[in-house]
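Lab notebook page, bench 4
Experiment: in silico fold of construct C2
Operator: M.H.
Input chain length: 275 residues
Purpose: comparison with the prior construct
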Amino acid sequence: MTDGIAGIDHIIIGVRDLEAARRAWTRLGFTLTPRGRHIGQGTANYCIMFGRDYLELLGFVERDEQAHRLETFLARREGPMSVAFAPDGGADAAEAALAARGLHPSPPRALGRALELPEGAVTPRFSLLNLPPDETPSLDCFICGHLTPELVRRPAWLTHASGVTGIEAVHLVAADPAALAAAYRRLFGDDRVTATVRGLEVNTGRNRLIFTRPAMSGTDTPPPAIAALELRIADRHATEAYLKSAGIAFMSLPDGRLAVSPAEATGTSLLFAED
């Protein structure tokens, strides 16, 4: 039996202007994949790939009457909107493992997107499943299994001038983090959930969810919401040098992390932490 979830697979960042977002994140020092167009939908994306996880910039290329969640989110703000977890052992195994814990995952469903490469489009395919909102409180999320990983993790896409190597943590604002503990212990296990002075920390298997009360979050983002993304970097000094050379405004925090404001990253507060 698997654990069901094997960490964060990717984070979706909703953007109003997909091409403007591509330019902004390229300036931030990220290598972006070619554009992907979701089959049968009006949405498209650019992805920022790391070794085991990635960021997805998601926006509209034409009106889409089915993409209500993205449309509703963008009516309020741009920025990180949801987390996709990686299944432990594939989507079918994840469904069985989560059901064995008394959870209620949906059956896996198929998704494909046309990835627009210079030599012609290819079709990465995925298997998705959801949990009811009350089983992942204060977090918009789903589980995403890759059926064609070789199409989206090309070596040339994994190196970034910013020095980022992966996702360290997702920082979230929750009205009452302590009240979330029971649900996340059920999902991840008792030993993966820790109460902290600021709220609640969840070890997803290879990265973290950090829930913080609004008064301690340092943000005016109303709960529930993703307040910031914390990314791993190989060398703090090299990342700092890149940000300076690109004219990116940032702050050096007392704990050694670098912070980039949401104005630089399509509504996304970024923290860079040396691995």
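Observations: The first helix runs from residue 18 to 27. The chain is about 15% helix and 35% strand.
Next step: discuss at group meeting.
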